[in-house]
Amino acid sequence: MTAKISRINPDQLHNTPGYHHITVVETGRTAYLAGQCPLDQDGSLVGAGSLDAQVDQVVANALAALAAVDAQPQHVVRSVIYVRSDDRKDLGLAWHRLTVSPLGPAFTSASTLLGVAQLGFTGQLIEVDLTVALPD
Question: HEC states along the chain?
């Protein structure tokens, strides 16, 4: 049975820049992806000092992780985006680059965007955490 995914924006809540306030999964299995970091296959940081380059690597890694469980971006039902910055401009740039990327459909579901003081790897500027309703 294929999971039925509904995305809802109640009239009583504010308009969003593309995500939905509520994502409902009726049935199916779920995958929880570890935070996707801007690391290459060897574990080396990609794009030191460049948020754009790091977003692109995170997108590539997330797409590879989704493919490993036979899922696609539209199967994502929740995302959390961590950006190492206290500047809202950086958060907006990361959001925009993610939403226009091949991973973009993932961010139409329930989503949270956070500016944080530190991430796990030296020089890391972004990390994306995804929850997926797996297709059959």
Answer: CCCCEEEECCCCCCCCCCCCCEEEECCCEEEECCCECCECCCCCECCCCCHHHHHHHHHHHHHHHHHHCCCCHHHEEEEEEEEECCCHHHHHHHHHHHHCCCCHHHHHCEEEEEEECCCCCCCCCEEEEEEEEECC
pTM above 0.85, yes or no: yes
Residue 80: what residue type? V
Q: Which residues in 96-131 are b (16+ Cβ under 10 Å) and which e?
A: ebbbebebbebbbbbbebeeeeebeeeebbbbbbbb
Interval 68-119: pLDDT, tens:
999 999 999 999 999 999 999 999 999 999 999 999 999 999 999 999 999 9
Question: Tens of pLDDT along 55-65?
Answer: 999 999 999 99
Q: To the nearest 10°, the Cα dihedral for 36, 59, 99, 17?
A: 10
